[in-house]
Specification:
By secondary structure, this protein is mostly helical. 70% of the residues lie in helices and 0% in strands. It has one domain. The longest helix is centred in the C-terminal third of the chain and has 20 residues, at 71-90. Pfam families: Retrotran_gag_2. This is Retrovirus-related Pol polyprotein from transposon TNT 1-94.
Amino acid sequence: MREFELRRMKESETIKKYLDKLLGIANKMRLLRSDFIDSRIVEKILVTVLERYEASIISLEYTNDLPKITLAEVLHALHAQEQQRLTREDR
């Protein structure tokens, strides 16, 4: 539980690496606690990703009812933004 609460995205991490680690911790916690729900993971992601992902987060918040945003929607939006950024950097 403590590991999940203290986890923050590092400047050097890709969104994939960060989310893989965070979801790994969350899955371990689910084995111990059945009440660990996706909305808690979504909330954690929304407040701990780096500022460069703020546009995706704001877009999600404005186009969806915040409590109804799914984990899949968050993951897709953040992966898409990172992919666009990486594509631009490769040019």
